[in-house]
């Protein structure tokens, strides 16, 4: 049976979604892995989103908590709000209480990726504060570490991401993920998918 990797994200302006798409490609590069993109439910009204100049959502399906149980590995992505995950994603995690009660996600490998507005905007604090969600569910946090090699040590160009996971800087919204940031996202997808496959095979 194929190993299922779910990439579950919230993206208001498209930056996190672009990383998610590359993570999916990376996961699918592992033989025997099926990867799928999922969005978490939006909590803001269309009127508010329009005032915030948010583009329309893409056609990625909206996930429910019970969908998470079907995955062999999950990679969660979200933009940063004041150094933590956006409220929309936190609201989704808050809705997984039933899964927490039964520990239905315990033992599943999980990763994290993110977008911040600036270099001091929470590239590490967002990941650190998100890990608590995984811990309470008994999930296995899989960081990228320094497995991306020289790309982790780039100093000449602005680069999001960290040993915790892939990341990008959105700036005022006009900046899009760089090739290096997308490369780390692809690597993260491949890295976690391979681990999920290995764990599934040993079960």
UniProtKB/TrEMBL annotation:
Its cofactor is FMN. SUPFAM superfamilies: Flavoproteins. Residues 5-192 form the Flavodoxin-like domain. GO terms for molecular function: FMN binding; NAD(P)H dehydrogenase (quinone) activity. NCBIfam families: flav_wrbA, PRK03767.1. Belongs to the WrbA family. This is NAD(P)H dehydrogenase (quinone).
């Amino acid at each position: 049976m194929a190993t299922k990797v779910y990439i579950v994200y919230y993206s208001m302006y498209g930056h996190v979604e672009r990383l998610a798409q590359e993570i999916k490609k990376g996961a699918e590069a592992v033989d025997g892995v099926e990867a799928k993109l999922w969005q978490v439910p939006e909590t803001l009204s269309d009127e508010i989103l329009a005032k915030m100049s948010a583009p329309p959502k893409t056609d990625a399906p909206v996930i429910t908590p019970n969908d998470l149980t079907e995955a062999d590995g999950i990679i969660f992505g979200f933009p940063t709000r004041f150094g933590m995950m956006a409220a929309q994603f936190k609201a989704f995690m808050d809705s997984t209480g039933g899964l927490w009660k039964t520990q239905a996600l315990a033992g599943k490998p999980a990763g994290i990726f993110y977008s911040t507005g600036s270099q001091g905007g929470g590239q590490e604090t967002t990941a650190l504060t998100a890990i608590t969600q995984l811990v309470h569910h008994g999930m296995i946090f899989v960081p990228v570490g320094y497995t991306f090699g020289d790309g982790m040590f780039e100093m000449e160009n602005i680069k999001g991401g960290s040993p915790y996971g892939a990341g990008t800087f959105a700036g005022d919204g006009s900046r899009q993920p760089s090739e290096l940031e997308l490369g780390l996202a692809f690597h993260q997808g491949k890295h976690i998918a391979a681990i999920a496959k290995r764990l599934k095979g040993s079960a």
